[in-house]
Write a structure and sequence with these properties.
heterodimer, A: six-stranded parallel sheet, B: alpha/beta, 7-stranded beta/alpha barrel, five-stranded parallel sheet, three-stranded parallel sheet
Chain lengths: 425, 407
């Protein structure tokens, strides 16, 4: 049986973005196809999966500390990683870390960058203890851990890129993060990107050749969205008097382009005032976005809510008449598939990787807010088009499975194992 | 011989509970937080009543009994009165006892402590009338002197108040309005025939309201005899010293431990020790003195923050859009004829809602933070806009029903 040592950074239900969702979908299908997975997380938050073994780096080296009895469970005190944490946010939380360090003598990194290296160091022991055939690491926070495992075991490393630093920051990269990505991608034996555009960005900016990169589109769990009682969908109340709902859901950061969504909203409202624009998510742009909506005089039409998970997310998709993803950069955009599963028509920026995977969607350039507004109003006012997108989208997305992605990964694993050629190390 | 004129403001808003997008259309109770949070209106009033209203009223009643020359005035917002009437009748009773002495004047204001004068004259008149009726019903008196929310004032308001029959109106003695002139005389709005302007002496008022317990202040601790001496020093250089402040100064903003109640206890005797001093209510002030000059105030002023303008409520786009949206619903809301709905709409006009959305974080940030029950101005804004949308949905539903009946 093929055994994979996989490094991630988040896993449902403790995820803050699409990466955790992708890891769950991919690993579940990999195990269904007969792969054995040891999944490593930087920090023990209690993530569980019945189909694979999850190990946490923080409990590897410091288990002895548990016995010291500081009244704190050491499993909760590991590497302080959170996928979308910026360096600034990390520094703000650093006081807390220093406090933990003082009472526990756990060395803690001074920066997010150092924390990532610490995760790598902690992962050595797991790499020594476990038997496996191949290493698979997701995004930059776990790349150094994957690389350490490769160094210790001599096994091949697959680096799975869900987003690059260039995409996350809109170009104003953090040098340290970029350097980690660059070095790890150089040393990886195989690179996977979730879309063609990210493949091009990696090839153009990270000094690797395209033949080392394979595109593996994300999939979607079909059973995930079935069991929700529509009678309890409180968002439907918003539509009692004939309003339509347009949904934006995602991190409120430059990368996701929520500001373009609001500008398009203002234009759409001049044509059709009976629309609510729902923005669910958290992020450093949230306050700015409220000022933007108020400044445009539409703060009563743009409603802000917290990041959605579980049934609330499903309610939002199902209540919405249109899902809009106005990302400036969107390596894939798993929420496009989620919306389609829920029969919600999708308007997505042409830049998204998901555009390569599905056809029954509308696309727009994120910066073209006139066109975005036009298409929003158009879908809402053309019942036939709305129905077509909803029904055909649903049928189409059924074929976009994690099995397909897992199958591609397994083929890559097998050819890597067969091919003894040394990677440039 | 300076006359001393005390006016205390008493107001408690109905704070909006945390209201999510998911609550819109599903929950028409906006003000009923019953948690331990700072949005639980009942709990807040209970706390302030015990720390401030009840002990301060007891003390004032005692002082009025001891000094026949002692007088004060209050403005009690309607939205405050209805809350204590419902939940804390003993608080209401303590105010009624004060008014019954005949030496406590009540002033006129907008029932909902709103900024309606800036947005809708019809609504403004309605709220002033409603407040007047409430005062008449609870206290058996009719106010003759007007004070607008947060002492917000301009020429137009002065002229409007005159047309409404008021003999006096209160506002801030702001430096940028007065220039070299003194706040210790009466003035009149341009072109006014009868109405007189009483200006707050903010320096002396704020010595009590803001600086009293400030240990770094050179005059700390402030004793009644020292303060009375400062007042007497104006002898010959002013006619009336207007000491206007929030009533919560006593026991809430300035804690009991600061000695604020002792200060108040001794103040009347210390003031009256000087034979030329006296206490007057605003009505007595306007009866006794004539305006010294016209005061031109074309732009709105208020008693809030260092700017003494509208910026506490209307300085950012969140505040401006939120308030524009609530007043834009006026016609539709009133046309429903639904009393509960109309009442909710009016409660959403209370100025505090917009104050909580303020993002001025400089010199006044501390004050704003102190008075803000929400974690951030953005939390205040979100709950407000969600509630506004819930209200609008209810309006639309009712109007749809009306239309359906007509077909």
């Amino acid at each position: 049986m093929l055994k994979v040592l996989m490094f991630g950074w988040e896993f449902p239900p403790f995820n803050s973005g699409g990466l955790g969702t992708a890891c769950l979908g991919l690993t579940r299908s990999l195990t269904r196809l007969g792969t054995d997975i040891i999944f490593v997380l930087p920090k023990n938050l209690g993530a569980k999966a019945d189909f694979m073994n999850i190990r946490c780096a923080d409990s590897a080296d410091y288990t002895d500390l548990v016995a010291r009895g500081h009244g704190l469970n050491i499993k909760e005190l590991g590497v302080f990683l959170y996928p979308y944490l910026t360096e600034t946010e990390y520094r703000e939380r650093y006081d807390w870390l220093q406090f933990l360090q003082k009472i526990n003598h756990v060395p803690t990194g001074k920066s997010l960058y150092e924390e990532v290296l610490r995760y790598a160091v902690l992962s050595r022991q797991i790499a020594r203890e476990e038997k496996f055939d191949i290493i698979h690491a997701h995004d930059w926070l776990s790349f150094p851990a994957g690389l350490e495992a490769k160094r210790i075991s001599g096994k091949k490393l697959v680096a799975h890129v869900h987003a690059t630093e260039i995409e996350r920051t809109g170009g104003s990269v953090n040098k340290n993060i970029y350097n980690i990505e660059k070095e790890c991608l150089r040393q990886a034996d195989q690179i996977i990107t979730v879309g063609g555009r990210t493949r091009d960005i990696v090839a153009d900016n990270y000094g690797v050749t395209k033949d080392k990169i394979e595109v593996v589109h994300n999939g979607i769990d079909h059973d995930y969205f079935e069991n929700v009682d529509q009678g309890r969908n409180r968002l439907l109340s918003l539509k009692k008097t004939g309003h339509r709902l347009v949904l934006f859901s995602g991190r409120l950061t430059i990368q996701k382009g929520p500001d373009y969504f609001i500008r398009a909203a203002q234009k759409a409202l001049t044509i059709d005032p009976k629309i609510y624009f729902l923005i669910f998510g958290a992020g450093d742009m949230k306050n700015k976005l409220m000022h933007l909506a108020a400044g445009l005089g539409i703060s009563d039409k743009v409603l802000f809510g917290d990041w959605l998970r579980g049934p609330d997310l499903v309610y939002a998709y199902q209540a919405a008449d249109l899902y809009v993803m106005s990302s400036v950069f969107e390596p894939f955009g798993i929420m496009v598939l989620e919306a389609m599963m829920n029969r919600t028509p999708v308007l997505v920026s042409k830049q998204a990787g998901a555009v390569e995977a599905v056809k029954n969607i509308l696309t727009v350039d994120f910066w073209d807010t006139d066109e975005m507004a036009d298409k929003i109003v158009f879908v809402l006012s053309h019942g036939q088009l709305h129905k077509h997108l909803a029904e055909n989208g649903r049928e189409e997305v059924k074929k976009i499975t994690w099995e397909k992605a897992a199958d591609k990964c397994i083929n890559l694993y097998q050819s890597l194992i067969k091919n003894p050629a040394c990677s440039p190390a | 011989m300076p006359s001393i004129c005390f006016y205390f403001q008493v107001h408690q808003p109905r704070r909006i509970k945390k209201f999510r997008v998911f609550d819109i259309g599903n929950d028409k109770h906006y003000f009923n937080d019953d948690s331990e949070s700072k949005l639980n209106n009942r709990k807040i009033i209970e706390k302030v009543a015990n720390k401030s209203y009840l002990p301060a009223n007891r003390l004032l009643l005692e002082l009025l009994g001891r000094h026949p020359e002692f007088k004060v005035s209050f403005s009690l917002s309607g939205i405050f009165l209805e809350q204590v009437e419902h939940d804390f009748p003993e608080v209401l009773k303590s105010f009624q006892d004060l008014v019954a002495t005949g030496r406590v004047e009540l002033l006129s204001e907008t029932y909902y402590h709103s900024l309606s004068f800036l947005y809708s004259r019809d609504e403004f008149r309605h709220q002033v009338k409603k407040h007047k009726e409430k005062i008449k019903k609870l206290f058996g008196v009719t106010p003759r002197i007007f004070r607008n929310t947060e002492l917000i004032y301009n020429n137009e308001l002065g002229q409007t108040a005159e047309k409404m029959g008021y003999r006096g109106i209160l506002t801030e003695g702001a430096d940028h309005i007065l220039g070299w002139r003194s706040p210790n005389f009466l003035y009149s709005p341009p072109g006014a025939k009868k109405i007189k302007l009483l200006l707050k002496n903010y320096s002396l008022s704020d010595d009590i309201a803001f600086r009293f317990s400030e240990k770094t202040w050179a005059e700390h601790p402030l004793c009644a005899d020292k303060f009375a001496h400062w007042l007497s020093n104006h002898n010959g250089a002013g006619e009336v010293i207007n000491l206007f402040m929030d009533y919560e100064t006593f026991g809430e903003h300035q804690w009991e431990e600061s000695g604020i109640f002792d200060f108040l206890r001794h103040l009347p005797a210390e003031v009256l020790r000087h034979p030329d001093n006296e206490f007057l209510t605003p009505s007595e002030v306007v009866a006794k003195y004539e305006p010294k000059a016209e005061l031109d105030i074309p732009h709105f002023i208020s008693w809030a923050d260092i700017e003494r303008d509208l910026s506490a409520w209307l300085s950012n786009d969140l505040q401006r859009d939120a308030i524009a949206k609530i007043y834009s619903l006026e016609k539709e809301v009133l046309s429903t004829g639904d009393e509960e709905l109309i009442e909710n709409w009016r409660r959403l006009q209370t100025s505090d809602h917009f104050y909580y959305m303020c993002t001025k974080f400089f010199a006044d940030g501390d004050v704003h933070k102190y008075f803000n029950p929400y974690d951030t101005p953005y939390d205040a804004f979100l709950s407000y806009m969600n509630v506004l949308n819930d209200l609008r949905l209810r309006v639309e539903e009712i109007n749809l029903q009306i239309n359906n009946k007509n077909f």
